[in-house]
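In the laboratory, one determines a bound structure by crystallizing the protein with its ligand and collecting diffraction data. In a computational setting the workflow is compressed into a single prediction: the sequence and the ligand go in, and a structural description comes out. We illustrate the idea with zinc ion.
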Amino acid sequence: MRALLLIDIQNDFLPDGALAVPEGDQIIPVVNKLQEEFNLVVATQDWHPPQHKSFASNHAGKNVFETIDLHGLEQVLWPDHCIQETEGANFTKDLKANKIEAIFRKGTNPEIDSYSGFYDNGHLKSTGLADYLRGKQVTQLYLVGLAGDYCVYFSAKDAIQEGFEVFLIEDAIRSLSADDFKKVKEDITSMGGKVIQSGSILKTKNTN
Ligand code: VGL
Ligand code: ZN
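The predicted complex, in structure-token form:
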């Protein structure tokens, strides 16, 4: 069984959002088309309380994109983003959502960031996503979404460690840094994951 995992396709990560990923909007039509090819679609949602410690605004004198030590982990300080129950945290209206069977929220603990959809950055607490997928007999996991160099990357690494066969669908992913995503692809490939294009999935059924 294969599943499509939509990572953080939220307003704040799209152009004009608080933490905009360049060209993030370009993945939406691709993701919508891809969803038709999967019997199971699951999504993650970055879901921070306003006092989240990953926000530069919660550290006096610190600027966005500076790094600090947060309880022993290196932490990039982000602009306020994906605050619970705000429009920025919503999935974009252009994203088809009718096939999304479950949504796994992350980043809710103000003391630790959570890039991966599976675990927080300290690997202390599970979201339950891996067990959910195993419960659905999923063995192959296809990842799309934002941002390729953060939440997609960390989700892919955890997915591989959890024993899933992992595919990054490159043209349905955009990154904060396109350069960093090159390293992500190398790393994921070295761990046994695969980098593919949406065409290799869409062509199996569609003629366009
Ligand atoms: C993300 C930075 C902070 C992401 C989330 O979804 O890639 N990046 N929070
Ligand atoms: Zn975040």
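The chain is about 20% helix and 25% strand. Keep in mind that any predicted model is a hypothesis to be tested, not a measurement.
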